[in-house]
UniProtKB/TrEMBL annotation:
Transmembrane segments: none
InterPro entries in the cross-refs: Tab2-like (IPR009472), Tab2-like_C (IPR046761), Tab2-like_N (IPR046760)
Ranges in coiled-coil conformation: none
Single GO molecular function: RNA binding
Positions of the RNA-binding protein Tab2-like N-terminal domain: 4-104
Annotated protein name in UniProt: Tab2/Atab2 family RNA-binding protein
Segments forming domain RNA-binding protein Tab2/Atab2 C-terminal: 107-262
Lineage: Bacteria, Bacillati, Cyanobacteriota, Cyanophyceae, Nostocales
Pfam families: Tab2-like_C (PF20429), Tab2-like_N (PF06485)
Superkingdom assignment: Bacteria
Amino acid sequence: MSLIWQVDFYRSPQKDATGQVLWELLICDAIRSFEYVATCPQSQANSNWLTEQFKLAAKEKLPDVIQVFRPQSLSLITAAGNNLGINVEATRHTLALKQWLEEKQYPTVIDKPPPTPLPENLWGEEWRFANIPAGDIVDEFAERPIPVLQIPEFLLPINLGLASTVPVPGVIIYGGRQSLRLARWLQEANPVSLNYITGAPNGLILEAGLVDRWILATFEDAEVTAAAKVYEQRKQLSKGLHFLLVQPDDSGMTFSGFWLLQEENLNNV
């Protein structure tokens, strides 16, 4: 079983006795059975210091993966991880670490840019809202030969305590000839959640990577808007769980990409 650390390295709200800015390193595992804290003056906040701290924290066993949610600390932690042969993963799913930071009353909110339109050469032919019973998701998609498939174990409906009959809402994009290209682009973007935003026009915003935001669709049609509201209501009932499916057409024979996603502010920090 892989040993995974959740790590943050950032300016501390605290200062030392001389008023110098301190940087604080926090390391924990997913259930916080392991926690490690170290601070250094800003002048020492570099990958070499981090490398030595990782060795101290590990004692005998280094982690297989380090997960990082903060863009500002990603490059330093990645460099230190490279020094020790540790894979570093940029992900928003660091629930234990964010809970710890909040207990310490440290900010966890990351500034996000305005959403950017999806590149025109990728957009599919049409899209629609849909839902799948929670109990059918694994059988329907996990065993299929889908080129791009993202079903994280921690998001499996059974692991979220969802009844098999609960409808999991989602969005299906019919990509036509662009279907596989769109799925590959989304794979690179690393989808996190897909949210309905009201406005003029209304829109579907894809949260991706650590801070990226993409406009997947815009609409003003009253029927589509009503469906979007139902989509958001169903997310409330599914503990934020939802999906994004890309397929060439509506035949249901072939799929290009499937992502199981979760709204950050419902069940994840």
